[in-house]
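Let us practice reading a record.
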Amino acid sequence: LQSARVVETAVVIDKMSIVERLQNFITDSHEIFKEMDQYGRESSFERTRREVRHQLAEAEKYRASILRNVNTFSGLSNDAIISAAQSMEEVFFKKGDTIIEQDDIGDTFYVVEEGLVSVLRKVNMKDKKEEPKELAQLGANSFFGEIALMTTEPRSASVVVLSPICKCLSMTKAKFDELLSTTNKIQAENRKLIGKDVLETVPLFNTLTNANKHKLLDVMLFVTFLPNTYICRHGAAGNTFYIVTGGSCKVTIN
């Protein structure tokens, strides 16, 4: 009797599996027919435009995912990361090309999209007989030269193309500075909005006009505190007013 029940259960499960497969097939078929119908209704121009938009969106998503792993971009908002991804330009190199040279003043950051490069370094650049030592090989989804976006220090190594073709994405320091400037302005405006809301709730500032409140916010400075840092101490003389625009803090009494 138990064996019969097991067989019946197995048959029921198998039937359910078949029904699920049929339902999935029908759903997939509907989607395919919908796409075919859309394809048939579109003009060649509309179809090309849709495909290009899709390719651009995928490229933007890929670039943004790389930039999120770069420390230089870690403090930027998601919108700023997207803007940075959109501003990057494609550049191609062939085997043997030197993308960056050790000791040169750099101003460009690179992401390897396709191909392979070698990172080389010499101990003494003045010694023409010294062979550079390979520090690493970088393939697709790798990046280098990000320090050039923040400083004007000489390059610490050279990067030479190993593959027949190397496709990179590049961003200059000028572009990065422009992006940073725009981001800072947006963040400053957001902090002012937060500050305005806070001032409305503080009785001490109730007598101030809106114009004076705006002037007060204009002269306030943006300050960042590291974790576990004291902003002010109990018992110490206080002469500074703070508005918390991001993060959180703990209030304690000794």
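A brief commentary: The longest strand covers residues 165-172.
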